[in-house]
Amino acid sequence: MPSIQHSARGHARREEIVRAAIEVIAERGYRGASLAAVAEKAGLSQQGLLHYFRSKEDLLIGVLQWRAETDTGGRDIVADPMSLAATQGVVEANAHREAIVRTFSALLGESVTGDHPAAEYFRIRYRRVREAMTATLRLEWGDRLPSGLTPEEAAPLVVAIMDGLQYQWLHEPESFDMPAAFKAFVRLLDPKAAP
């Protein structure tokens, strides 16, 4: 029994560290964030943080995995695609998670440099997200959307819109309605859909 409690405490502590890292990265970007700053925000020594995450890169991957699990509920979204309504729900949830969206966007922007530790993660992630969105669109409309596009053609557009809307929202969170803009885009995919 003690090992189960220890494991649960360890998992909870890792999540606290990830949340602290999200705040620090949102403020400073990945390159400007230090393990010392994350440790301080989490109420740990740097050595204590290294007990849970071996390196800054390990912590970065932990942050990205946590965000992916939060968005999908831990499910395989390619094998078990989300509905379009659930995807809209993710966009709506993101409108209330500025630090997470800011961290993700900062990491995404920084990762386009070849030497960034998250570059490979984002390459794989985008392949998976396009596959998942293809499955979502196929679930919604079959092999052809009402607009005439195939799910394979529309999927990268939907992903680009979602990410682009996040960037616009981060610049003007009080005046830009990200969920409404995404719903308007979905209506472009299916002009006959109710508003």
TrEMBL record:
> Residue ranges of the HTH tetR-type domain?
11-71
Q: Transcription: present as a keyword of the record?
A: yes
Molecular function terms, GO-annotated: DNA-binding transcription factor activity; transcription cis-regulatory region binding
Give the record's keywords alphabetically: DNA-binding, Repressor, Transcription, Transcription regulation
Q: Which Gene3D superfamilies match?
A: Tetracycline Repressor, domain 2
Origin superkingdom? Bacteria
- State the DNA-binding region(s): 34-53
InterPro entries membership: BetI_C, Homeodomain-like_sf, HTH-type_TetR-like_transc_reg, HTH_TetR, Tet_transcr_reg_TetR-rel_C_sf
Cited Pfam families:
TetR_C_6, TetR_N
Q: Does the record's keyword annotation contain DNA-binding?
A: yes
Q: What is this protein called?
A: TetR family transcriptional regulator
Q: Which organism is it from?
A: Glycomyces algeriensis
Q: Which lineage ranks, top first, belong to the organism behind this chain?
A: Bacteria, Bacillati, Actinomycetota, Actinomycetes, Glycomycetales
